[in-house]
Amino acid sequence: MSLVTSLSYVLPHRLLSSLARRLAYSTRPALKQWLIDTVTRRFGVNLAEAAQPDPRAYPSFNAFFTRALRPGARVADPDPSALLMPADGRISQLGRIEAGRIFQAKGQAFSAAELLGDEAAAAPFADGLFATVYLSPKDYHRVHMPWTGTLRETVHVPGRLFSVGPDAVRNVPRLFARNERLVCHFDTDFGPMVQVMVGALLVSGVETVWSGVEIPAYGDRIARKDWRGKGIVLERFAEMARFNYGSTVIVLLPPGVAAFDPALKAESPTVLGQVLAKRLDR
User: Fold this and answer.
1) 157: β partners
2) For 35, which DSSP code?
């Protein structure tokens, strides 16, 4: 276990993330430009594919970090039976939900009920599929829809803000079920689908296209929002939400619906819009 992971057990997670948020939203020219230039250089950010390729044009670090891509930089796979990769990054893990549990890393797992904050909500995904995609600081930080869905409910589950980097994933038990997260439930033509936006240390916010900022405020109890009847339909490949700084999105699918692209495995790089899985009934 790295020193950073060890220290994360005692660090004041929310205080540090709140301070990071203040820095991220600062419009002080010297500070925001230092942050942008440091991250661009250290992580090799490819600004050529951004809608705004000039790093000096962003009013804040957050504006840079949540930048849009230029038209055509990502395209949806044309196969109409393909469920799409929701984000740039890399596969942390993917596979079948076995006995209600989701594999995290060797020796580490957590239950779907823990992740969703609800035993009943997890039931449709028993023996289904999960895919965990890690977004690093260099990646495009907007999360898109694998398939067309109608928003039914969001659940803000409070928790810690551990790092979600590889060392933490290997060593922090039940990591993704412990971190603060926003669970987004969708109804689709194949049944329920969930995308979970998992917060992390120094991630100063999660926001959605339908209601804006969801995290912070950080929560101390589970908070549900019922979106049934509001007509919020997001098409396949449409933007759904975005992170500030690197984090993780987890997709849950019910059983018998799809099969993952066999080329995908742990540590596979991902590109928004590529094939995540293929429908079995088409």
Assistant:
1) 181
2) H
pTM: 0.94
SS (H, E, C) 173-203: CCHHHHECEEEEEEEECCEEEEEEEECCCCC
pLDDT tens by residue, 40-97:
999 999 999 999 999 999 999 999 999 999 999 999 999 999 999 999 999 999 999 9
Cis ω on the peptide bond leading into residue 217 (within 30° of 0)? Answer: yes
Tokens of 67: 């930048």
- The neighbouring-strand residues paired with 244 are 205
State residue 169 phi and psi, 5-degree precision: -60, -40
Lookup result for tokens 């023996």: 127
The residues that are catalytic are 88, 144, 247
Among 3-17, 65-79, 172-186, 213-227, name the one with the lowest average pLDDT: 3-17
Token pair, residue 119, equals 């035993």
Output the six-digit token pair for 95. Answer: 């596979």
CB 19 within 8 A of CB 13: no
Name residues whose C-beta falls within 8 Å of residue 118's C-beta, 6 or more positions apart in sequence: 155
Q: What are the Cα distances from residue 108, in Å, to 101, 102, 111, 136? A: 10, 9, 11, 21
- The CA-to-CA distance between both ends of the chain, in Å, stands at 45
